[in-house]
Structures
1.
Amino acid sequence: MADFQYKNFEDHHIQRNFSVFYFYAKDNADYFESLLIEHEVPYERGIAKDMLRRHLIGIHKSHQEIAERLNNETGNMYRKPFLSDDVMRNFILILTLIVVFLALAGYFLA
């Protein structure tokens, strides 16, 4: 089974030897940049001039593998839980169990 990959990078539209990683939050971009510095990966940083004001970091494709690993680490650092509220999580769990129980009861009693 293939692993799910978060992909926030693309080939540079002019220089095909570079990949551009983009981040919508400055904190994420700063963390990714610090990981690149720590692992001594050369990069270039800029800000997109579009309405989204994305933070762009360009990496040469010879460092693509390590950059993708560091990008995944950055995503894991700032990922939030799907259901962070304990009450809501328990409500969804109980509701799911009730629906499964009703489905099984309907199957066996019908």
2.
Amino acid sequence: MQTSDYLSVIALIISAISLFLSWRQYARDAGRLKLHIDYTSEMCGGTFCLEITNIGRRPVMVDKVAVLTFDEKEFPVSENRFILDESEPKK
């Protein structure tokens, strides 16, 4: 094998590593939401507290928050748009 063959194999390995690192950085920077629900049941009239946290690095805009029950009924929790920055919670 010649020197150019070795250099092309090394360049292929370096570009594969670069592609992996770029994908990993993109995946880490994406905005992701984490939901936490506390529910208290008092026979028929229970209450719940919903907390949304952005666990990604980019800001996320939330348009609408609603709760969907087992019988496919939708109850709106928040109709207002809001932006969550990195690690910012909203109750």
3.
Amino acid sequence: MKTDQALIELSRASSKVAALTRAIGEAMKCSYEAQTANGGTYTDWIELAYKVERVEDEWGRPHWRHANHDNDVDGYLADHCPHAMVAHRLIQERKEARKVLGIARRRVSVIANRLAREAMGAA
């Protein structure tokens, strides 16, 4: 019965991570489309999506640095793009879902290793 439960938990966790990944992709696509529809460029969207800004160093070479959002990522994204804010929230949710998935995988591995040892002992 523990084996069945562990496999069910693994399946559910895996499905949740996959669903969140698809939702993140869709939100990022909507963000990109919204930013470029109004004359924005891919670079503009990258700055928003990754919360960075393009700056030049003292020799005039461009590079990226984190945008100043005063640790209020939701507020920063809400001011700039609701789709990017949704993606950010989904990413945070997926981080937690991946932890659950990792626990489920380890649990299944422990059960599989135990069953393998028992099978070797019986042979």
4.
Amino acid sequence: MTLPSWWSDWAVWRICGGSRPAAVPPTVPKENFAILACCIEWVRWRLNGGLRPKCAPAKIDPEWWQVISKPCVRAKYHEAQPPSKPPDQQPPHVDPPSRYKNAPWTDKFVCTSHGMREVDRVWSPEQLIQRCLQYGVKSIGTQIGADCPDPDWAMHTRQLYIIGQAKGIPVWSWGRADYAPWLQVKKDIRSVMPLAGFSADVEQRCQDQQLPEHLRDEFADEMPLSVVATGGIDQSLDEDSVQAVAARWGDYFDFIGQDYHKEDLPLTPDGGENFVYWRSTAKVAHGFRHLPDANNRWHIPMGMSNAEGTPPMKDQVDLFKPYSPHIGWWDAEIIEANGEWPVFASI
């Protein structure tokens, strides 16, 4: 398809408004109008989200990318949006509530990864439980799977579960579930059960495209399920819309958002709702479930400090306090290394 030389200016003009460029003819030939009108809808879809217009093919001619590259077009669709309503003000009836009652991540929690490994142990399972009791941690999520830096993650998770159960601290697990085949994911989870719950960390396209359904069918009747929803989760499934992805994950999964406040990418807890943007009411019409055990919020925010460009916890207290006590933090080892337990207790 060969487009006329003025088509890009015409498209930009129609999208951004303003005066008609001199290079744009006052009358658009009929044979070009349908193509260019479709381009407009396609650009709006790509930059503003939502469903792909029926007139727009899934793959677009490379010439059409010229429009998206224009600064004024990008500015229009990336300009600051008005702040979304605080989660407590979002109507809980839009979608059903979580299927789970008293899921461990709906109260104050910490995640752990390497702290119990033998080579450079931070704490024993008993010491970690005591630390959590001391500073008001209500549950612990331990990392499992091949990428866990603790080679004895299965043994230590089982030990921690038993000790935590005796002390009233539920122990659940989390692990990357996107890069591994389903049989390996299932084997890893089964190796540490019983658990108070499992959270699938999904950061990219899932190798197993039936992962939500497999997790649901295998474990939903035994323990609560959630998903650690990073910015890449909207590409986790080969669906043709964000809504379809949200519907498949949202059916049996609570959501934990990586609300990492970074100096070069400041995020507030409310902004975190938009960070996990496909799950917010502004972007997705269905597929998410509110959490009655967390003041009817749509997700549990999880913070991070002193890692990956995030500032100290003391600089984030005001951001997370509105969500307290329904928050989590990654990870307990970093909290320990930086002496931030009293700060965490204050949130």
